[in-house]
Fold:
Amino acid sequence: MNSVWYGILVTRPHNVAIAAAAIVVGALTGPTAPADTARLLWAALAAALITAGGNVLNDVIDIAVDAVNKPGRVLPSGRLGRTAALRLAVILLVAGLALTLLLPLLCLLIAIASTALIVFYNLYASGRPVIGNLIVSLLTAVAFPFGSLAVGAGWWGLIPGAFALAFDMGREIIKDLEDCEADRCGGLNTLPIAAGERAARWTAIGALLILLILLPVPHLTGWLHSPYLLIVLPGVGVPVAIIIAGLRRPRASSVYRRFQIVLKVDMIVGLAAVLAG
Structure:
């Protein structure tokens, strides 16, 4: 029973839930409500499984770094073996891909490309400056058009996807700032290590500034109504502006951690704002 529980924990359930929610938001961004709820269910489940598989694979690859930086995680703490975790990752990824056979062809192609990116990231791009951050951000952003295409709503999901891309790019670089010392010990070459903390901070600021500029656009163009603005400005805009101000000078690792946790919560607030609008 413990191994089952640890198998669930290693998937990072909160990230899996956010991925499934992104599919739902993407499906609801079109001008009409999705008619095929079964497709929406399969799409959300497929995205959840692929995300879970990617998270497990990432923990398998990063076990040495996590042993220094996050020793309490399931794999470095020894609560689940590396071989068992690798098998679990493969099963989850294959199951997610299999479910996309029930969806339109474009969804299958996106799922295949996403899975290929997950493998490429974990084997070659993790810990590399910018490219690794960009891949993770793209994988987050693509969930929205995947959701809209799954229910026949076209490419409307690209709109929240653009927000997610800027949002996650900033958060990923802040995570690199948080993990800088452990990553250096693990031989990684993230942006703060390759270009310095100042360059990383200002790159994160640039991504988050793009997000702030984009925030009112859906309302100004008439795509989303007033409830969106009433939620997103105080719930996302204000915290992001505070984080941008905080990134203007070097911070302790614990502060960077708080920044990226706030941004993770803000992602949920942003999803709620889109649904409300």
Summary: The mean pLDDT is 90. The two ends are 43 Å apart (CA to CA).
